[in-house]
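Working notes for the structural subgroup meeting. M.R. asked for a predicted model of this chain before we commit to crystallization trials. I am recording the input and output together here so anyone reviewing the notebook later can reproduce the run.

Input as submitted:
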Amino acid sequence: MSATARVTLGLFAIALVCLVLGDFEISTHDPWGELGRLFMGLVRPDLSAVDFLGEAILRTVAFAFVGVGLGAMAGLLLALAFERLWVRTFSAFIRAIHELFWALIFLQSFGLHPLTGVLAIAIPYAGIFAKVYAEILDEADPQPARILPSRSGRFSALLYTRISQAWPHLVSYTAYRLECGLRSSAVIGFVGMPTLGFHLAGAFAQGRYATVGALLLLFYGLIASLRLWVRPRLLPLYLLAAPFCLGTGLPIVWSNVARFFTQDIVPAPLRHGEGIAGLWPWLGDLLATQALPGIWNTVLLTQMALVVTGLVAMALFPVISRHFTGRIGGTLGHALLVVMRSTPEYLLAFILLQLWGPSMLPAVVALALHNGGIIAHLVGRRSNELTLRQDAPHGVNRYAYEVVPRVYGPFMALLFYRWEIIMRETAILGILGIATLGFYVDSAIQEIRFDRAMVLILITALLNIAVDVLARRLRAYLRLRHAINRQSC
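Returned structure, recorded in token form:
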């Protein structure tokens, strides 16, 4: 048995164990009726409230532009020094903490101020940009730098050799991260920022499915039309105008900011003068009652979502593959995958929780649909590069014996690449009521125990980093040298 087969079977075995141990019960009274009402809201959306819908879209776009712009600038500076260990460690740490966790942190200090939303997007994106920009710059041809005059400064050499070569790739990736930024901008609305997510949560709470349908369709239209209105010549104008479209929010009370970062997040035993002797029992209680149960449920849910993501991706990539579908079918398949990968996991999980009730089922389905849509899109594009022999079989035999064996390596590489991202999203879904680490973080914040919340967030970051390291080692073990599309968010 090959190493790839052993790893695949191992993942399936772990997922089956998780299925037995997890909670996948549908607890709502009429889940299919609720789903039908939501579908009718999508079919007959209520666009009468144009004023607040337009404002919500404007704020969503503004937060995305400012957050991604700041993240890109900071990420480029970090990428230039990425060979240093502390830079790599710092970048890995800040990108391991989800945007919503950053938003919860800054809400306690800056309140409902635009700075909260901007920093919540910019900080983790800076870590992501640093890693990817560094990889892009490392792939530049070193030969031009060797023929520069000896007196050329370091900045000039970098600008005219590596950056000039990598510029198209840097721009392409940044543009795609803007699409991711729009999703993040919508999601931070669930914690109070005035974006689409804020209005979506309110409409769901009031049972106004026609308004929910209008918001979702406008969001999909915004993502789908991104390349039409985000033109390179207009980007400077957008970046200049975006800060003025964020709104004002509540004023920042700087004394609260100082107290939060100097007192509130300091562990209670140290704050009360108990010293190290009181710190260990405090940490032990936190680990036993919150951290360990949260880690268990986070890992359980992540492993289930990872395997279901793989199943969804392998089932759906043929809908955009020229080896299985025609022009019309391929167009419909692309539309399906665009909707799947454009819907943030948090947003989809929120919707499914309203329909099915609190359990792991909505989270697994939400994670699998979003991430499966991304991987299916990338694997489908990879399959279109294959050339089949003239007597290649058709139907199931073509799928099983001709195409899947040739795309399975890139598929596994992408799946392991998404592993850490699925873990990040799994942790944050706890804010919706699922008992992952995010649930305990949100509970600690609600109880105004910010010291506990910060420790749990640090544990979440370390867990994400550990999964990322494990995924890289598995890719190396399986010798998955296939290029991974950096535009997979």
